[in-house]
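Field notebook, page 286. I keep forgetting to write these up properly, so this time I am using the form the group agreed on. The chain and the ligand, iron/sulfur cluster, are recorded exactly as supplied. Prediction of the bound pose follows.
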Amino acid sequence: MLRVRLHGRGGQGTKTAGSIISLAATLEGYHAQDSPMYGPERRGAPVASFVRISRDQVNERGYITSPDVVVLFDRSLASSKAVDPLAGLRKAGVLVANEGPEGTEGSVVRIDASSRARRLVGRDNVSAAMAAATCRALGISRVENVLSAVETELREVGLADQDVQKNLALAEECYSLVPALGVRDQDSPEAEHALAEVRYAPHYVSTSLIMSTGNSPQKKTGGWRTSRPVIDYSKCTNCMVCFVYCPDSAIHLDADGAPRIDYDNCKGCMICLTECPIRAVSEEAP
Ligand code: SF4
Ligand code: SF4
């Protein structure tokens, strides 16, 4: 059995990518199973999902602690002690990372999925890109199966037809850039169990530790951001709607009543962009 663990941030498409890989493997003739980590799925917060692929029926359940492949959607997670994305990765395991410069060195595959997604789709959602790159690295040999899985899963989450088409182009490009590594599974402690024990992550993996009162400003949620809002002050009417709607109080009003974004604590949820009545907020790279 091959075990794939995906680490990303809420809003990047980590769960959807797991479903795409799983469906592509099924279309290729394997048994597959995918599941997300439930609980921390706030936009920008660290999230994970898990995929198991086998020639036999997959009975194992639960989080994957010894993956054959780790897929890293956001390089800022690499240094996070709470997430520790490479934990348990097998010695001969493979890392597929969303970062440049692109290339493959031994067991590390780098693909600049974010730049490609911004160019081809118009936003930094890399589910199709990272899933397609991972499918290729895993050795899923028919690109038609990967594209079919991308289309099915993106329609499932309600993407408009034109966005589905853009994501298909993105997936095809990313699939073609990665070598087929044909990852092989290895002896696994999990394989000893017909049904694996379901393990729960400690609470601090998904929840910030509040050790004393009034410490929210120290929790720099700006590090969660995958894109950032920028206010065009030539359009802004100081209506205060964004100030009212920001769920993290990351927008303050200056002495003249103009909204100012605190980028240390803005987590990039883009609610201010959605709520601004005159579209004075745009989305830019983090
Ligand atoms: S400033 Fe905008 S993007 Fe940032 S947290 Fe507030 S509502 Fe979300
Ligand atoms: S909602 Fe838009 S117009 Fe109103 S204060 Fe915010 S940025 Fe300015």
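OBSERVATIONS:
- The chain has two domains: 2-206, 216-284.
- The longest helix spans residues 161-177.
FOLLOW-UP: compare against the apo run.
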